[in-house]
Amino acid sequence: MDKRFGLGIVGAGMGAKPHALALQALRDSVEVRGAYRRDSAKRDAFCAEYGFPAAESYAAMLADPEIEAILVVTPPNARADIVAAAAQAGKHVLMEKPVERSTAAAERIVAHAEAAGITLGVVFQHRFRAASMALGERIASGAFGKLQVVHLVVPWWRPQLGYYDQPGRGTLAQDGGGVLITQAIHSLDLMLSLAGPVADVTALAATTGLHQMETEDFVSAGLSFANGAVGGLMATTANYPGGPESLTLNFDRASATLAAGTLTVRWMDGRTEEVGEPSQGGGGADPMAFPFDWHKAQIADFAAAVREGRQPASTGASALRVHRLIDAIMASARSGTRVSVAAERG
């Protein structure tokens, strides 16, 4: 049997739960050799709950020759130094979204990883839903024809009490933004991976009276894609009690809708196909109310990519595309004008 993939975890807050459950399920192929959080009591409680060894320090994990990669599950304002230290130690990195609070900071992290020659993966687990992968395969086959229209809706709910009242939540200093970079970023990344890059946007953003927060909880935008398709999006955390996000792609010969983990294809000739099973997506008051299977698939892909010397499905470079799209949407909302999405660099 091949040697298990050695992994260390940094960060053990709310966002670490699906990762921990996924790693328990992957124990035959992935070995968690340490988990670290500055709050020692919460670190020890996390390790006891999931059966992981506690690391005394981040430096101790980086010094472990059996650890091949670090899973970073901290808020985005704590990422740069963590990734820099991992890169210096020659450890690969799989990190939670977003890469950082601003695109400029995210670009620095990606460039640092590339210069160090380490693999940098970013967690966008919606790509790993069975329905998402099935749609990607059908699009690649060319059976649908040309993409014409894209429609994305993220009608989520987050309460003020217990969520936005948490220190730093919904602030530029900690999160870098509101509903786009914290919640809808998953759906935006999935949209880009399936529909291709957006060329320009016209947008509106607001903070509704349902929340007291620094950043936006509602965004709508018109989209023009580089391939000629047009589309629109609506994303919010002010839609009580919250519902599943949906992405509909209209092609020459069929329309395809991803909703709640299910793909529905409606062909112009009257046929209908369904793939996947309905599931919760974290659209309600509990942000963690979704299966861990998608995280399991992404962690497995990342470990295999490192071992095989290839890029994982979701990389630091690909994550920059959604950062630049969010920048353009917010710039358009501020200016009230149409804004071009910044082109990829390098």
Walk me through this protein's architecture.
The chain is α/β, with parallel strands linked by helices. The protein folds into 2 domains: 5-125 and 297-315, NAD(P)-binding Rossmann-like Domain (Rossmann fold), CATH 3.40.50; 127-286 and 321-340, Dihydrodipicolinate Reductase, domain 2. The protein contains 10 helices and 14 strands. A 9-stranded mixed β-sheet has the order 13-12-11-10-6-9-8-7-14. Strands 2-1-3-4-5 form a 5-stranded parallel β-sheet, sandwiched between helices. α1 (17-25) packs across α9 (293-308), α4 (79-88) packs parallel to α5 and α5 (103-116) runs antiparallel to α10. The longest helix is centred in the last third of the chain and has 20 residues, at 316-335. It is globular. 46% of the residues are buried. Residues 6-122 form the Gfo/Idh/MocA-like oxidoreductase N-terminal domain.
Compact description:
The chain has 346 residues and is of the alpha/beta class. It has ten helices and 14 strands.
Q: Which residues form runs of ≥5 with pLDDT under 50?
A: none
Kindly report the spatial arrangement of strands forming the biggest sheet: 13-12-11-10-6-9-8-7-14
Query: Per DSSP, what share of the residues sits in E-state strands of 2 or more residues?
Result: 15-25%
The coarse overall form would be globular
Number of domains: 2
CATH topology of the largest domain, by name, is Dihydrodipicolinate Reductase, domain 2
Distance between the termini: 41 Å
* Tally of helical runs: 10
Assign the CATH class of the largest domain.
Answer: Alpha Beta
CATH homologous superfamily caption of the largest domain: Dihydrodipicolinate Reductase, domain 2
Structural class, judged by helices and strands? alpha/beta
Oligomerization state: single chain
Largest sheet: 9 strands, mixed
CATH architecture group name of the largest domain: 2-Layer Sandwich
Q: What is the C-alpha radius of gyration, as a whole number of Å?
A: 20 Å
Number of strands: 14
The helix content is 25-40%
Overall pLDDT level:
94
How would you spell out the order of helices and strands? Answer: EHEHHEHEHEHEHHEEEEEEEHHE
